[in-house]
Design goal:
Elements lengths: L6 E6 L2 E6 L1 H23 L6 H33 L13
Antiparallel strand pairs: 1-2
Length: about 100
């Protein structure tokens, strides 16, 4: 596997956005969003009229906390597929 397998390049006009290790970047972005939702939701609990919206942000943050292990699992499965055998043979063994 080359380093190019870990790079996502998005062309924007004359510029390029290069993302290396995209699953790690996705996980970091998810963690930042979790922090934002919980922080804003916490401030909303200071006012009675914002409690419902704050609760919704806490639920959103909780859903994203469930997304975190899913991202790690997808990354692991993706890496296994890349490193795994191309076609299994009759005498191939797999460890689970």
């Amino acid at each position: 596997m080359t380093d190019d397998d870990h790079i996502l390049t998005i062309r924007i006009g004359h510029d390029e956005l290069v993302i290396r290790q995209r699953y790690q970047v996705l996980s970091i972005v998810n963690d930042v969003l979790i922090g934002i939702w919980f922080l804003i939701g916490s401030f909303m609990f200071f006012s009675d009229k914002w409690v419902f919206t704050g609760t919704c942000l806490f639920v959103l943050g909780s859903v994203e906390m469930l997304i975190r292990p899913i991202i790690r699992l997808i990354r692991h499965v993706h890496l296994q597929k890349i490193h795994g055998p191309e076609t299994p043979t009759a005498d191939s063994t797999y460890d689970f």
